[in-house]
Amino acid sequence: MEKRDFIVFGLQPWDITIGSTCKYTAIEISRKNRVLFVNPPLIRSALLKNKNSLQVQKRVKILRGIEPDLVQVSPTLWVLYPKTVIESINWIPIHSLFKILNWMNENRFASKIKKAANSLNFKDYIIFDDNSMNIGFYLKELLKPSLFIYLLRDAVTMVSYHAKHGARLEPKIIEKSDLTVTNSNYFCHYAKKYNKNSYMIGQGCDLTLYQDPSGNVSIPENIRDIPHPIIGYTGSLTTIRLDIEILLYIAKSMPGYNIVLVGPEDEKFQQSELHNLKNVFFLGHKNPEELPGYIKAFDVAINPQIINTITDVNYPLKIDEYLAMGKPVVATKTTFMDYFKDITYLALTKEEYPGCIEKAIMENSSDEEIRRKAVANNHSWENFVEKIYHYAEEVESRKKH
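User: That's the sequence. What structure does it adopt?
Assistant: Structure tokens below.
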């Protein structure tokens, strides 16, 4: 699929400080097509409550005409900061009233998108919606794209804010989309209940940092003197997603191993017994470009997730990061992790973790490292977007006939 016009939007703005599926997808699509990336509109509650944030301040400057609302970032990619404020309506409990106000909000939103698309002379454009089921619900009707694609990749409706109306709206937006793509078999099975044109395409990842073909990635000084074998984790240490009991069990039952945790801690982690154990090392928050060096020092990488409605079905990107470095991986056996069952070691309980860790280290080899890297590299943004193209072309062909 080449030389087409795409409008891409989702829950995450262009100027988010962390990696974004929406942003990476837009960049990849723009390699062969023209793309208008649309930021979420400014919500009045954010304007009032978060007026000191850099993102809100930027939107205010745009509203006042101090900065442009449409910015070209490459020859084929433009970013729109909609010059409008929509009303805060998520709190409204009455569905019929919410529906009316949501339509009004989206009329404002859609008018700004239409204006930008017209100024760029976009024709027969395809809309790609990254998991935004509230804002964007009516864009298919309001903008009349040639194709409306919905990406279901996260358990967003399990979060309290989106659960209020999103849980009700998501099946409806899936049903009316021309194509729904998902990053897991679980989400695909769910989507197919409402739309037969639903397909699992996996997840895209930017693994450039984690590729070390020449062996030039250096191991940081503060991990070099920690004795091996090292069991490592990189990422936010938060009890919303991680199980402290698993880490405690590993540390106590494997005293000859050292656990290295790289990332910022929430309050419960800061107060946990883990800080009293001699074989547990907290190395703190690190910049993304530093993480490959720490992973390189690991003998085995772990993802000790706690199982809840969010973690059970979400795609943990860190698994690809570990695999891209060739490391053996032990993780909690969630519903989603079945996707990685042939390349990782999965533990259902804390008691299973030590055995899996020992097996992972024992069975490690250069051939296994090559196999892991190959699996991770297959999850590139290029492959992710090519699958979107494939199914989009299939759907378009069926629509024509």
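The chain is about 40% helix and 15% strand.
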